[in-house]
Amino acid sequence: MLKRTYGIVIKNAVFGEADLIVTYLTPHYGLLKAFAKSPRKIRSRFGSSLEPLTYASISFFGKEDAGLPRLTQSDIIRPFHSLRCDFNCLLDISEILELCLNFLPEREPAPDIFKLLLNMMTTLESHTDGATKLFHLFYKMRFLQAAGYLPGLSACGKCGTKTSAGDFENSKAERHHFYIAQGAVMCSRCIKGGGDSMPLSRGSLKFYESLLKWNPSAIGRVNAPAPLVEELRDIIDAHIKYVLGPSRFAHKKGG
Ligand SMILES: [Zn+2]
To answer: Rounded to the nearest whole angstrom, what is the distance from the C-alpha of residue 229 to the centroid of ligand 1?
Structure first.
């Protein structure tokens, strides 16, 4: 059965002599792998529409539950060519693409994450001065939020007591502690024996909660204190690394 949708090329892998297996992020099918016959034989619009980061309208043919559907048509909606040419930019985006590949199941609708990625790429392309660390942190957090993997910093991971509430015994303290294996801050009643933890300052906690509420368009106007951004980035990165396991995610230390 022929289906039409649109998607962003997350990656492509060479298959055989001239074929490709293309992985898309689409709103309706989430991660979708499709087989493209002979795109590498001739320089064509079809071939260039399969480059990573290309946003394209596609048609594919395949039975439900059958293996790889075959890509029958692909028309570029927006090439995002400049993002592929800027190495640093590409590194930052690659990290988000890796998250898509590792966190999202195949063939499950992912409209929010699709929108987020498209929004990020569109914003990045209009920022000729390059993305800030805050921008990158923001999208990483929002991605985890949309995928359901956000670390819990606003409440104890076990009993749910809000970190800002009076009955969280450290609510007035200058810092809480994020426990990596629990993926959350923990109150002393719930945490037994500790485990690896990272300090979370009150300033960073407040900033974290703001970042989850802000509109992406606000990020460019925010002048965030670097220590807060770095503290949150380290916690988010440690969380991702723990959830995926060290072998599945190449941790990139920004700096
Ligand atoms: Zn607790």
So the answer is: 26
